[in-house]
Specification:
globular; three-stranded antiparallel beta sheet
């Protein structure tokens, strides 16, 4: 009986359990530019040619969409899985994406590569999956290749929300080593064992009720996702304070979250805790407290090389240059309050704060400068900034690219449409990104 195949760093390397295609909107250039601007920092200029790199690109869907919808930029995607890289490279070639390079390399190897600096470096998931030497290589890449003023977006499993998964993850890892069958069969058997423990009154699930909800979510995922996420040898949720300090050591300041609603305490922190959090110094302590307040299990941290906050006048000037558009599915007319389903439960967004922006955007794209002439934003532009961040997170609006050019979006859509397991995406060149299509039930 052999164990699940692993690569040199203890990741699953099994063609029978390929990691599924996922699209991460938070890694798109226009999203990152608008989020950093909203937070009060000067983001890389999207009107000029720029370079973007994804470390741990997996199946490559995010990089493919980014390259297809942003033809004036150069994109690089790096992953240690040769099969995934080969598949993604083939899709890119057939879609005619000459501005996208897929690199097959372990990050320890890639850290030795020389080349131009990147204006954006993004990564999702792998920071919590890899060994310390690979994390060190990641930091070395950021130190050597992230340009001054460049943005780093880092998504990872975090404490305390993912803490309770550690016991279940160890069982999944051991199942990969000891149960019979191919990787998908071992995943199925391991999840069945966890379910038997949960339904049989195991103390772990009695002590951690959230673990049962997480098991429910696991059972809805494909085997490839579970295998790559949880069967590896080094899976470990991370503490935000450690992450902030690690990147501060290479000159990258913490800006906030690439999940915009998490930058608005009024919409993401229980009301009774908000005054207490305002007494804390920003940075590791405040973010650790926020993670406890939200029971955060997934963070998307945003850093900048040599971060310097804009003064109020420069911040408003930067905001005024942003143009927003309504996305498919945005409410054409808001007749009541909005409901945001957040980590702390449903949060109400007052109609009078959001309706003016949504009504204006229903008529077509609008600049921040134009929108802030509308009441109630004319008196307090900060209200508009927060409203647009929340609406962006909700999938109702999105920042536009500064100019429209011919793209390869249609060609990529034709290549993706017949592939199994690809999310239903609408590629939208005007925003340089994609939106998830609403599939009729």
């Amino acid at each position: 009986m052999s164990a699940v195949a692993m690569d040199i760093d203890g990741h699953v390397a099994d063609a029978d359990a390929a990691y599924p295609m996922h699209f991460h909107r938070e890694q798109m250039p226009a999203w990152l530019h608008a989020t950093a601007t909203a937070l009060g920092f000067r983001a890389p200029d999207l009107a000029r040619p720029y370079r973007w790199c994804e470390l741990g690109s997996g199946a490559g869907l995010t990089a493919l969409v980014a390259a297809a919808c942003n033809p004036s930029a150069r994109f690089t995607a790096v992953d240690a899985d040769a099969a995934q890289i080969a598949r993604a490279r083939d899709i890119a070639e057939r879609a005619g994406l000459a501005n996208l390079e897929f690199v097959h390399a372990d990050l320890r190897e890639y850290a030795t590569h020389s080349g131009e600096s990147f204006d954006f470096i993004v990564s999702h998931g792998m920071w919590a999956w890899v060994s310390d030497p690979v994390r060190d290589a990641f930091i070395a890449i950021v130190e050597r290749r992230l340009a001054p003023g460049g943005l780093l977006e880092l998504g990872y499993m975090s404490h305390p929300g993912a803490s309770q998964l550690q016991g279940a993850q160890r069982l999944l890892h051991e199942a990969g080593r000891h149960l019979e069958g191919d990787t998908p069969a071992r995943v199925t058997a391991a999840l069945s064992l966890l379910r038997d423990l949960a339904d049989g009154g195991a103390g772990y699930f009695a002590e951690h009720p959230g673990a049962r909800r997480q098991l429910d979510a696991m059972e809805r995922e494909p085997a490839g996702y579970i295998a790559h996420e949880f069967l590896g040898a080094h899976w470990q949720p991370q503490h935000v304070a450690d992450v902030i300090r690690a990147f501060a050591g290479v000159g990258c300041g913490f800006l906030g979250s690439a999940t915009p609603i998490e930058n608005i305490d009024a919409l993401s922190i229980p009301g009774a805790l908000q005054p207490r959090l305002r007494t804390l110094p920003p940075g590791p302590l405040a973010e650790t407290a926020r993670d406890l307040a939200r029971n955060q299990s997934l963070r998307r941290d945003l850093f900048q090389r040599g971060a310097q906050r804009l003064d109020d006048a420069a911040h408003l000037d930067a905001l005024d240059t942003l143009v927003f558009a309504a996305l498919p599915g945005a409410p054409p007319a808001l007749t009541g309050d909005l409901r945001f389903d957040t980590r702390i439960g449903p949060v109400t967004g007052a109609r009078e704060l959001f309706a003016p922006a949504l009504d204006a955007l229903a008529q077509g794209p609008q600049s921040f400068a134009r929108l802030r002439t509308l009441p109630p934003y004319d008196a307090t532009p900060g209200l508009l900034n927060q409203a647009l961040q929340a609406l962006t997170w909700a999938g109702f609006v999105h920042a536009c690219l500064p100019s429209s050019r011919d793209t390869s979006a249609d060609a990529l859509a034709r290549q993706l449409s017949p592939l199994p397991g690809v999310p239903a995406l609408a590629l939208l060149p005007a925003i340089g990104s994609a939106a998830v299509r609403q599939v009729p039930r």
